[in-house]
Amino acid sequence: MELKTILVTGGAGFIGSAVIREIIKNTPHNVVNVDKLTYAGNLDSLNDVADNNRYHFEKIDICDAKELERIFSQYQPDAVMHLAAESHVDRSIDSPFAFINTNIIGTYTLLEAARHYWQNLSEKSKKNFRFHHISTDEVYGDLDNKDILFTETTPYAPNSPYSASKASSDHLVRAWHRTYRLPTVVTNCSNNYGPYHFPEKLIPLMILNALKGKPLPVYGNGRQIRDWLFVEDHARALYLVLTEGKVGETYNIGGHNEKTNLEVVQTICKILEELVPNKPQNIKNYIELITFVQDRPGHDQRYAIDASKINRDLGWRPQETFESGIRKTVEWYIKNQDWWQEILNGSYRLERLGTNK
Fold it and tell me: What is the pLDDT of residues 234-244, one digit of tens each?
């Protein structure tokens, strides 16, 4: 593909910011970051690239059709990477409307804006254009058999408002490709972790609670299994799919790291014993902070990705093992307290009125 400008939605989020850092640091392309800056959007995650003249930020809602039309007209993107989404399962259980609005209505609005823009391009530009929709393995439901993995042909069976809304958006993208011939690709990833992860998620929550000597809440018996993918590995995979993936195809992206939630928390405790031996509140061991709490309603028990297709077709494999990635993650949170302290005290929200760049 001959890319010049990539439009990234949700670029101030966890995965979106990693994608933008990857593109700006390792490619020659321009990036337009479209983000509404909801609670999980944090422009501080982009401080490393914010002053680069190839990076541009636009604070808009993907449900705003007129603003999307302006963005496409002004920046003339060669590709869209759609990451904007509400993504926290617990929040979707408590307040599902935001997930329906952003993940379904927002995706529809973006697809329509992209389609109208694409239809008016030259034939060469039409062929070159890509709409890359980034989704989750949670659309497949969960797995009972330990020998089975999610493949690109696994039937959808979402079990939470979040995963149901993402499944809906996946189906919309497929329909816009089949009906209107919009050149799309879809990726479904396993659980991401790494630097700049919003503190409500499992891994950063455990790290920060442990550092403060607070309980480490683990749902149920902690035996739920997830396949963990280091976010920078995911960002590299997403760019590869955008530039080399086949139109109309879906690619599963996984970390080849199945761990129970309890194993993840225990690993974090072990690393902290080594890196931060001076514990708060005179606790003897970090592991004694683990507290089992009532399980999440409808909690999926196991996710596991078969990533053989992206390896076979595009040559991608993760560079990080779980052991190397989780150590890098813990070290990052220890060294970057200013980033997460501003989230915990709410001061990061004061930056929401910043000017566009």
Answer: 999 999 999 99
